[in-house]
Amino acid sequence: MPLLNNLKEHRARIGVNQAELGKMAGVSRQTISLIERGDYSPSVTLALKLAKILGCSVEEIFTYYEGEEDNEE
């Protein structure tokens, strides 16, 4: 899971549930849930849209983690 996130914390900060955030971003509640669980990496467009909605930068929500398995050649 190389893409870590704290989307749930940012969502809670603005007081919206998954369905509401999904509606604001033009995606389903399930998509927000998958992102929060780390089971889905959003497109760059969706990541930027979420950051704008949440009033922060993409880097404040998402962190790319390069583990040893990602460095194999």
What does this structure look like?
It is built from five helices and two strands. 53% of the residues lie in helices and 8% in strands. Helix 2 crosses helix 3. It has a two-stranded antiparallel sheet with strand order 1-2. The model has no long low-confidence stretch (mean pLDDT 92). The chain is mostly helical and 73 residues long.
Q: Would you identify the regions where 5 or more consecutive residues have pLDDT less than 50?
A: none
Let me know the number of strands. Answer: 2
Question: If helices are DSSP runs of H or I spanning 4 or more residues, what is the number of helices?
Answer: 5
Largest sheet: 2 strands, antiparallel
SS content category = mainly alpha
Residue fraction in strands: 5-15%
Terminal CA distance? 18 Å
The helix content, as a percent range, equals 40-55%
Quaternary status: single chain
**N to C succession of SSEs:** EHHHHHE
Shape: globular
Radius of gyration: 13 Å
Q: Kindly report the average pLDDT value.
A: 92
Quickly list its features:
53% helix; 73 residues; two-stranded antiparallel sheet; mainly alpha; globular
